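sorry for the late reply, my laptop died twice this morning and i had to redo everyting from scratch. anyway the thing you sent over, i finally got around to it. pasting the sequence first so we're on the same page, its 392 residues, then the predicted structure underneath. double check i copied it right bc i was rushing
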Amino acid sequence: MTAPEAAATTTGRPPPRSRTVFAAAHVVADPHADTTPDGPAALDWDATLAYRRHLWAHGLGVAEAMDTAQRGMGLDWGSAAELIRRSAAEARAAGGRIACGAGTDQLPPHGATLADVRAAYEEQLTLAEDAGAQPVLMASRQLAALAGGPDTYRDLYGHLLRQTARPVILHWLGPMFDPALTGYWGSPDLDAATETLLHLIADHPAEVDGVKVSLLDAPREVALRRRLPKGVRCYTGDDFHYPELIAGDAHGFSDALLGVFDPLAPLAARAVRLLDTGDTAGFRATLDPTVTLARHLFRAPTRYYKTGVVLLAWLAGHQSHFTMVGGLQSARSLPHLRRAYELADGLGLFPDPELAAARMRTLLTVYGAAEPQQPAATARYGAQARRTERGT
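ok and here's the structure:
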């Protein structure tokens, strides 16, 4: 396995006090594994776990085995289960906070029953709790396909919540992240779906730590968080509007569980610590400039944002290659990747800008998309020849 080239920070920072902040972490593929897009996934465990230590060193929590880690897009359940076990053990050793996704992706895409879905959730929930992690009840593609309406969700989630050992985070992932989740909570009408979710939480307030909202709709998230029972958090998963949602208003604020905080970890941690001192203006001044990069990474089709996240980790020196499980490194165009590099470089995200530039040039050269670069003398000679041809 290949160790990351950028040394992990050894002087860890304590978590921010004013907000609970998780970065949903990506996984590092093993570039030497002889695999196919159909899996199973092969991970570089040393580099994958080192990246989690990097996030904890900045004081951020780690949201493990979420969609950023390619759940349902190359990372199979067997690999995800091992990832949860290993990352939870690393969290104990590092004193870091960890929450882990529990879903139903061990089931086949089609043919499952509601009983199968419940059993699959129970298996993954038990594994996360036994590992010592806070569970995140992820949205289920199989449940979305089977559910006849809101009552199915309330019954199944209620069953799960009654048996949890600690409060969980509910996850509402919108169809822009996964089209198979259209109509989650029993209706394609988001107002009706919100009512179902709020009724579920009201039935089990002690079992719900919070709800992660990934709808890319800031007004809807604000309206929902104002209706949550006291003590239930709203974790923003909005990678377009996170500065304003985390900063909050006179009625409250959102905590965070964000995929974009994987590449933004140093800036995100610095910004939230400014909120700890009451410096909201400083928080916005630090984080607002990152939104252009976030919107670029998460542009439609949004589910492929992971490719840009891994690109930036490679350019920053956190891993030695730009290979992803399932071959997802090819999911974005070269112009898209080039622009991601330019925006991240403008934010100062690369510890070694020369390394980042060299790696970006290498990537573009391999695919025949590099800009031609002439030595200065050759360029001057070419310009003189062109003037001669024009008779000037």
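The chain is about 45% helix and 10% strand.
thats about all i looked at so far, will dig more tmrw
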